[in-house]
Write a structure and sequence with these properties.
This protein is α/β, with parallel strands linked by helices. It has one domain (3-14, 31-209): Rossmann fold, CATH 3.40.50. The chain is built from 7 helices and 7 strands. The chain has helices at residues 3-12, 15-18, 32-44, 61-68, 79-88, 121-134, 206-209; strands at 49-53, 71-76, 93-96, 109-112, 138-144, 189-192, 199-205. Strands 3-2-1-4-5-7-6 form a 7-stranded mixed β-sheet. Helix 3 packs parallel to helix 4 (61-68). The radius of gyration is 16 Å and the shape is globular. The chain starts with a helix and ends with a helix.
Length: 213
């Protein structure tokens, strides 16, 4: 457990501050399209079990679990958020977990929505290495194709894979994993969040990544 990260995100991610299930892009209503895309993807690749790294309040993900009957485990670095999930969704298995340091259970898919965008490049790399060390075959992770230096000036921070420093506010640095410093191959599939060519959940198999680090 990275205690610096736990202290930061335990302050920023509490049930009374986040309220993801009520409104916004991570609400039940705001995730209609991606929930359908995820459900289709789970069926297409015969994924029977998953670990949700940074599961937050599990509001919208609980709908995916109900619809697919996938064997679900969740991890969240904020203990108060885990306590909230215990009370709200007693059927879901969740634990206090740091995706950059703690061992992942053996499942078919590691699911990482948004977590990596709040990490420094050093901790982003730790998350990827932690996945590779786990032998989980698939990862579905937030990927932003709008970060494209061919279309925007490289000095524009949003259109580059910028690094970040941790502070008392929520840090954010979007990632296009196909660009430097990552240079990953194209994912095998995507679930577009808003529109094609923008932000998505991208699916990679470990055989595509394991020789890069």
């Amino acid at each position: 457990m990275n205690l610096q990260l736990q202290k930061l995100f335990s302050t920023l991610y509490t049930p009374d501050r986040v309220r993801n299930s009520e409104s916004g892009a991570s609400s039940v209503q705001g995730t209609v399209n991606i929930r359908q895309g995820i459900e289709n993807l789970l069926a297409q690749y015969n994924i029977k079990s998953m670990f949700d790294a940074g599961c937050n309040d599990c509001g919208w993900m609980s709908k995916v679990v109900d619809n697919t009957k996938v064997m679900y485990q969740g991890g969240e670095i904020s203990p108060t958020m885990v306590e909230y999930v215990y009370k709200t969704f007693p059927n879901l298995m969740v634990q206090v977990h740091d995706a950059t340091t703690d061992t992942f259970p053996m499942v078919d898919l590691l699911f990482v929505r948004d977590v990596a965008i709040h990490l420094s490049n050093t901790d982003k790399k730790k998350l990827w290495q932690n996945w590779l060390d786990s032998n989980i075959p698939w990862i579905l992770i937030t990927h932003n194709k709008e970060i494209n230096p061919d279309n925007k000036p490289p000095t524009d921070e949003f259109y580059s894979n910028k690094d970040l420093e941790y502070s008392q506010t929520l840090p954010e640095a979007m990632a296009n994993w196909e660009l430097e410093p990552w240079c990953f191959p194209a994912p095998v599939n995507r679930v577009w969040e808003y529109r094609p060519g923008g932000r998505c959940l991208a699916l990679w198999h470990r055989t595509q990544i394991e020789n890069i680090f």
